[in-house]
Write a structure and sequence with these properties.
By secondary structure, the protein is of the alpha/beta class. It has a single domain, classed as TIM Barrel (Alpha-Beta Barrel), CATH 3.20.20. It contains 13 helices and twelve strands. The strands form two sheets. An eight-stranded parallel beta barrel has the order 1-2-3-4-7-8-9-12, surrounded by five helices. Strand 5 and strand 6 form a beta hairpin. The relative contact order is 0.13.
Amino acid sequence: MLLERTWRWFGMGDTISLSDLKQIGVEGIVTSLHHIKPGTAWHIDDILPVKKMIEQEGLIWSVVESLPVSDDIKLGTGSRDEHMENYKTSLVNLAQCGIKTVCYNFMPVLDWVRTDLRYKDNDGTETMLFDYHTFAAFDLYILKREGATDDYPESIILKAREIYESMDDEEKEELAYNIVIVTQGFINSAVEDTNDYKYLFLHSIEQYKKIGSDKFRDNLSLFLKEVVPVAERHGIRLCIHPDDPPFSLLGLPRIASTVEDFERIFSQNNSLANGLTFCIGSLAARKDNDLLQFIEKFGERIHFAHIRNLKFLSDRCFYESGHLDGDVDIYPVVELLLKEQYRRRNEGREDIRIPFRADHGKKMLDDFHRKSNPGYPLVGRMRGLSEIRGLQTAIERIVKGKINP
């Protein structure tokens, strides 16, 4: 009983076709209605054509990633109540269309952050890097965020200054544009690619900075109070994505980064509709996170898994490595996920199989000649999917033998 093999697909604009995915052994599709902005309701007439397109290739729409939570909901301002109702309407309509797993995040301003989208690994592949010192250079000297110096020790400030002074104007602009626009623009984002994007970005930061961590947690609690009962009534499995990376950036609150954070989140509503997207790469970027502890504590709530790996260059500096050859031992993680499936089967749950996707991938071979979103090349992800499929096939034989000797 292997994990369900899924693949993130970006719709008709994706250079990878659904028929391609069928050929490489994908079972389920992870996608979204990318043209619909956060806060707007998804209607059945929007959902069904995409579902039909997927099913015509013999695949299923396994997971919505993401049904985005608007800034008004996160901030508790403006059109929050209207957007909350639209979110609930979207859940009901997805359920009526038979799509039951919905991934979302509650990150402020940025959904994920990398400082180099073309980091060259030793084997000639390209991957993505997060360098904390370079990010500090962006924050302190390019963005010039007010109060930023209070968020960094002197050693980081000095290193960031050194990095900034080594960059020419084109490199500084590329760094800012990649962080603010390139990594965000393809994920149901409210980000606008305009000449004053840095000014708008700073404005967004100020909005979130005013509310602080406690108020931000209260806003998430209100969101869960409103949407989880609707999800539960309609058989929807909501699963929050961890912060990426799972530590504070830009002086903003991070409230989905640690075991304690998720204990607080799940205490808001004990329903299994209040679940987790278990993203290995995101959680592992914080060295004090124990991935096995996450599965042991929250296994019954894991409705979706992102499997990727990373290698640390130093604390808070890492790059995305091959799926099996990073600093995370993937074997025991996959073993526990497979055991969780057996536990669900014995418990009589209907949602036995956990959909996973080979998250991100290194650019290699023909990927250099194809257009793709950052982190989403064809060959690199196909390699990761194949490696994980082989690994879990071997583990499954062992686990099954122990459970059914």
